[in-house]
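Lecture notes, unit on protein representations.

Consider one protein chain, 97 amino acids long.
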Amino acid sequence: MTSLPAPPPEPPPPPPTDGPSLRAAYGAPDFVRRESDSELWRYDVSGCAVFFFLYREGEALKIRYAETSPRGRESPLDPACLKGLTVRAASASRPMS
């Protein structure tokens, strides 16, 4: 008997690009700072934080850039911190038993 090859893994969802998709992906931020044309959303993860900088484009809030701390703006996003944020969001969306 010949077995069929396993189906390819599903591609990851596209990264959030605006406020609603960011909230859908990671839930409510731990901290929000609002200014007239921008917002800073911070998500706290064990040992690090992810900052999303959103700017108004018409009525929409669009993500302009993101950074992780302790790495900061001049370094690439810390993949372990982003993974921690994804794990946190997934565990928050599971129903309590």
